[in-house]
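User: Some background: our group keeps a shared notebook of sequences we're curious about, and every so often someone picks one and asks for a predicted structure to add to the entry. Today it's my turn. The entry only has the sequence so far, pasted here. Could you supply the structure so I can complete it?
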Amino acid sequence: MTGNRRDFIWQSFASVAGLTASGIIPSAELARGLNNTLHPEEIIIKPEKRPAPTESIRFSVIGLNHDHIYGMVSALIGGGGKLVAVYSKEADLQQAFLKRYPDAKVARSEAEIIGDNSIQLVASASIPVDRAPLGVRVMQSGKDYMTDKPGILTLEQLDEVKRVQKQTKRIYSIMYSERFGNPAAVQAGEFLRSGAIGKVVQTIGLGPHRMRPQTRPAWFFDPDKAGGILCDIGSHQSDQFLFYTGSREAEVNFAQIGNFNTSEYPRYQDFGDMSVRSPLATGYIRIDW
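Assistant: Of course. Here's the predicted structure to add to the notebook entry:
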């Protein structure tokens, strides 16, 4: 593509929330100050129609193990991307995907997609432990990569991703749908950038989830494959802490996990919390199933 690849991915993320990057806050409200409680007023902001994309890329999908892939594909198409092909080891997941996107070509193997030089980006929602190794192979083939969260499970995977990204100069992006795909989260970011609600010095991120064991695959209950509750779901809140506080780096003060109500899966984690801090702010994160 002739444009900036990173800009295209950001535009695709924005298409999920249905919001443009500017004009989201009425100027009259900004002038008065949103932290003024003397004149409380409900603000209803409708999503704006995005302008037609001016750039396009050809992308394909490898790995359909989480339904987040549908939101990712929708975002890429909304940003102007063209879905070319799909590959999944699981025939049932592939058939379900083709019902939604019947024009996608069925690739015979992962290698067929990675070896196609006309493809510029690969998207994946494979089993979490497989995402970083796939991303490395994708970048080494000269393509950009978009993965579902958690995009990396171990420090060893992180080191390898950073090494190959530096070597290839390709994009390794992670789709944090709770921020990119939520209009309220996008609006909160606009409030911060405008200075309407002051400086963030602490965040509290709570992630209660519901889970029916009978609907989940075996890998979901194995932290070595799924990442564990803080690495998986907690990555949303960690991303939000960094973004909303403007922090480039942070460290964990403490973290703990537990299994309180899922004894049939002894290694499963149905509770986790942690405290984080950066030079700019502190944060608390609690997740449970």
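Suggested note for the entry: The domain at 199-288 is CATH 3.30.360.10 (Dihydrodipicolinate Reductase; domain 2). The beta strands are 58-64, 82-87, 105-106, 121-125, 144-148, 172-175, 202-208, 251-258, 271-277, 282-288.
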